[in-house]
Write a structure and sequence with these properties.
mainly alpha
Length: 133
């Protein structure tokens, strides 16, 4: 926030177009992910080691096996990003489409969602990290 406030005079000169908003979204997302590493790591040495590993031990060769192994997970992440960026009128149209659909279709969708929740649930419960200070 401090850097954003400091750079505000220059940032206001940039036009507010969709690709500028996309770059802003990606930068914010990357910053939050890097900050989260420091939040979750036991110490700063571990955090920096994780960041070094992320930055240096990346190979595109792992992408295809990852997508093949976790196809439904990747589809949901891509759909989540797509739905997150949808315009309000499209969201409203989808809501109305769901509202107007018959109850049998809603029941089928409920079973599909429940099946995915069961498939994607984690086997272990993550510890509550906010009390670990």
């Amino acid at each position: 926030l401090v850097v954003h406030k400091w750079c505000k005079p220059w940032l206001d000169r940039i036009p507010n177009t969709w690709y500028v908003r996309m770059v802003s979204f990606v930068l914010t997302f990357a910053f939050i992910n890097v900050a989260w590493i420091f939040f979750r790591a036991h110490d700063t040495q571990t955090a920096f080691a994780m960041i070094r590993t992320i930055a240096s031990d990346f190979s595109i060769d792992y992408l295809i096996p990852f997508v093949e192994t976790r196809t439904s997970w990747v589809v949901f992440v891509v759909l989540g990003f797509a739905f997150h960026g949808m315009r309000k009128r499209h969201v409203d149209r989808l809501k109305q489409l769901y509202i107007d659909s018959p109850y049998t279709l809603k029941l089928i969708l409920l079973f599909i969602v429940l099946q995915f929740v069961i498939n994607f649930r984690q086997s272990d419960i993550q510890p509550f990290i906010y009390a670990q200070f």
